[in-house]
Amino acid sequence: MDLLDSLVAKGLAGEQPTRDEALAVLASGDDELLDVVAAAGRLPRHYFGRRVKLNYLVNLKSGLCPEDCSYCSQRLGSKAEILKYTWLKPEQAAEAARAGVAGGAKRVCLVASGRGPTDRDVERVADTIAAIKEADERVEICACLGLLSDGQADRLREAGVHAYNHNLNTSENTYGDICSTHDFADRVDTVQQAQSAGLSACSGLIAGMGESDADLVDVVFALRELNPDSVPVNFLIPFEGTPLAKEWNLTPQRCLRILAMVRFVFPDVEVRIAGGREVHLRTLQPLALHLANSIFLGDYLTSEGQAGQADLDMIADAGFTVEGADEATLPRDRAEAAVVRRRGAGTDLPPNA
Ligand code: SF4
């Protein structure tokens, strides 16, 4: 397939696919699926080897959100049966983080429901980071606290946050269909604030919300403009009690095509399979390891993930290895660019940047 040869060549050269090429990957048929996976899989193998980075999610605060994101079980008025609690104490969060790190996680993602943190919330998170780092200084911390206000990203960086996650989720055109309490521009602004403060940007999407192929390509290209260091790909879990409860739109094959398209657009960036991995990829999860180089270990957010050991077994069975705390995630060129963004030009690259 000429298209795939061209996409691989572009990816190895660090070039972008065109919009039509990205759409063609999504439109490819089941007969071509293994060819698509094999082609896209050459890119992470080139840039990341056979390493899989493990991330562990600690939910600092769950439910009771005033926003109305229609995909979210924690939204205003959600009837979904999830745990609802306000902030975990730093020691509780550190204990949860320890379990993930012991299971092989390199990055701990500290997540809190809500529109965005107050300055007091940011200080709570700072205390939590101190408790986690006391046990293991090398743990990479990502914060996911919602929309940021002035100065908060700087404070988080000072507290030891490495990355900030804030997803664009869907295309600008359809954003108003999934949320009325904030808009696409608000999300872009928070990602840019995090980057300006020197944090590594983690920003991705949710597939399966009824969007078109063009919407998916739009959001992935919008993400590309933001130049994140990691891109989580979520597959919608249609929670009962949310407006999208009936949106079961994904097949395992479709998920693989989406991951392949994202990989062609982000050849040398951490692409992470996030929410909905088990529910939607099901028995094809090992194939997805050829496309993404990062997954969440075990349980995440408000849904049950596979038990951590099952993930570790799958990685080993598929011939991959877990990325160690001292191994670099990003290829050197990209890591250097990220460090320059974080610390200014002329800064040496640390061994595990
Ligand atoms: S702001 Fe976050 S926690 Fe609140 S409804 Fe939206 S996605 Fe859910």
UniProtKB/TrEMBL annotation:
Coiled coil stretches, renumbered: none
Catalytic activity: (4R,5S)-dethiobiotin + (sulfur carrier)-SH + 2 reduced [2Fe-2S]-[ferredoxin] + 2 S-adenosyl-L-methionine = (sulfur carrier)-H + biotin + 2 5'-deoxyadenosine + 2 L-methionine + 2 oxidized [2Fe-2S]-[ferredoxin]
Record SUPFAM superfamilies: Radical SAM enzymes (SSF102114)
Enzyme Commission (EC) number: 2.8.1.6
Stored InterPro entries: Aldolase_TIM, BATS_dom, Biotin_synth/BioAB, Biotin_synthase, Elp3/MiaA/NifB-like_rSAM, rSAM, rSAM_sf
Pathway the protein contributes to: Cofactor biosynthesis; biotin biosynthesis; biotin from 7,8-diaminononanoate: step 2/2
Source species, domain of life: Bacteria
UniProt KW keywords: 2Fe-2S, 4Fe-4S, Biotin biosynthesis, Iron, Iron-sulfur, Metal-binding, S-adenosyl-L-methionine, Transferase
Gene3D superfamilies the UniProt entry points to: Aldolase class I
PROSITE patterns associated with the record: RADICAL_SAM
Co-factor: note: Binds 1 [2Fe-2S] cluster. The cluster is coordinated with 3 cysteines and 1 arginine. Binds 1 [4Fe-4S] cluster. The cluster is coordinated with 3 cysteines and an exchangeable S-adenosyl-L-methionine.
Matching SMART domains: BATS, Elp3
Cofactor: [2Fe-2S] cluster; [4Fe-4S] cluster
Protein residues bound to [2Fe-2S] cluster: 109, 142, 202, 272
GO MF terms, alphabetically ordered: biotin synthase activity
Subunit-structure text: Homodimer.
Job of this protein: Catalyzes the conversion of dethiobiotin (DTB) to biotin by the insertion of a sulfur atom into dethiobiotin via a radical-based mechanism.
Annotated protein name in UniProt: Biotin synthase
Species annotation: Streptacidiphilus monticola
Primary gene name: bioB
